[in-house]
Amino acid sequence: MLATHHDVQDKARDEVQKVFKANDGEISADVVLNQLPHLSAVVKETLRLFPPVGVAMPRVTTTAMTLGPLRVPAKTPLMVVGWVAMRSEKTWGEDAKMFRPERFLKGSLGPAGDDVRAMASSVSVFDPLPDGR
């Protein structure tokens, strides 16, 4: 993704170089997790667009639920396609198919006014049915 988005690549490289110099040439896991927000956003956006999951994620509902117009009984096997879920305009906005790491930076709001950064810090953002329902 960085090879085709030079502006994003430049920001990520500048951020890493700045933090590397500020930490005397050493970068710990703590530094990576807490001082490289742009690089972290690039990784999250890449994983969102290209989920490292197979074509479908098998799930079984634990309780009865509604998915859109469908009523799904408990114990129903479902196959969730991660590729489709991560490109949902309802969740990610009209630019859901675009590579835009800024959506994961502080202050970025999703289509429903949700704080995308807070949402992305949760494991559930990358799991369409996080509680197994």
Characterise the protein shown here.
By secondary structure, the protein is of the alpha+beta class. Helices cover 38% and strands 11% of the residues.
Short structural description:
By secondary structure, this protein is α+β, with helices and mostly antiparallel strands. It has helices at 6-22, 29-35, 37-49, 82-85, 89-92, 116-120, and strands at 57-60, 65-67, 70-72, 77-80.
Q: What is the fold's blueprint, element by element?
A:
Elements: H1 6-22, H2 29-35, H3 37-49, E1 57-60, E2 65-67, E3 70-72, E4 77-80, H4 82-85, H5 89-92, H6 116-120
Antiparallel strand pairs: 1-4, 2-3
Uncertain residue ranges: 128-133
Describe the biggest sheet? 2 strands, antiparallel
Radius of gyration (CA) equals 18 Å
Physical arrangement of strands within the biggest beta sheet = 1-4
Given helix and strand content, the structural type is alpha+beta
Oligomeric state of shown chains: single chain
Number of helices: 6
- Total DSSP E strands: 4
Helical fraction: 25-40%
- The first-to-last residue Cα distance is 33 Å
What is the typical, i.e. mean, pLDDT?
81
Overall shape: elongated
Strand content: 5-15%
**Can you write the helix and strand succession as a string?**
HHHEEEEHHH
